[in-house]
Amino acid sequence: MQFIRKTILPIVIAAFLPHTAVGQESASGYSWLNISSSSRVYGLGGVNISLVDDDIQTIDQNPALLGTEMSGQIGVNYMHYIGGSNFAGVRYGHSAGERGAWALNLQYFGYGSIRETLPDGTVVGNFSPKDVAFGGVYSRDITENLRGGINFKMLYSGYADYTAFALAADVGVNYFNPDRDQSFSVVLANMGGQIKRFDEAYDRLPFDIRLGWSQSFGSFPVRFSITAWNLTKWRLPFVETGDGSQTGEPQIKDTFVSNLFRHLVFGADLISSPNFYIGLGYNYKTRTDMATYKRSFISGWSLAGGFKGRAFAIGLALAQPHTSATTFMVNLNLSLNDLLNK
Description:
Blueprint: H1 2-16, H2 39-43, E1 73-80, E2 86-96, E3 100-110, E4 114-117, E5 123-127, E6 130-141, E7 146-159, E8 162-177, E9 182-196, E10 208-217, E11 220-228, E12 238-240, E13 251-253, H3 256-261, E14 264-273, E15 276-283, H4 284-289, E16 301-308, E17 312-322, E18 325-335, H5 336-340
Antiparallel strand pairs: 1-2, 1-18, 2-3, 3-6, 4-5, 6-7, 7-8, 8-9, 9-10, 10-11, 11-14, 12-13, 14-15, 15-16, 16-17, 17-18
């Protein structure tokens, strides 16, 4: 078991999880909780807690974004990542009176087939590591502009013959001024802990405090977003290896500016029409986590686009955090209320 914990699990986490610094800093065994299931959020940098829109997929990082306007929506998501890893899920929302709403969601993270070996290098077969999250969300309008929400999550992990189970919760608050298209959010993410461990060691959850702002200005058809995350710690150093032409030891970057920008995710989306959007995001932490001479020029950048009809919507997102990792996500949404009221 120690071999699986110390060798297999770090490889799985470091190789397959985007938007984390697992490869360069100590992290929890549940960093997959930071992966958005929303193509729109993924295209805006992978982290966004303040995007107010009639889209059931956007509530995965802030339960306070759920509202009665999403009643009857079914959302299906799929993401292809490195190698044989594939992530997929489904989400459904419904109103709870005039001021409340609830939702259920199931998310699956599969990392393909991995060869299982003993400490002496003997190959004993293959296994398919996986993580599964099942959750329920409830939100309620506190005032005309203020909404709160909570997301309860049950987390299952299965790696070879070993399993773990955990309980977690997200709590969020959102302030939205529709006259100014201005949104502010605060989220306490991934509170909780393990109920069943892999072995005697305890894997902590990636608890985080996040702040978010989104706003458009006048008739200018672009909405801007800034999200601050990993706010439970200031220092987020990373190792810079250069472009491959230098000799000597890699440099550890731990300046004020680098730490500041590794806490921030920037996004902008074109909202000139209610029927389509285009979004662009920049995540400096993703780019610096891939700080090797083989990283892509567009590492840290992401792109999203989508179309919305009366009862059906589709969203797409694309990013290349590394030259060997082109990631693709698709969302499909169906509004049962609009479909049945035709």
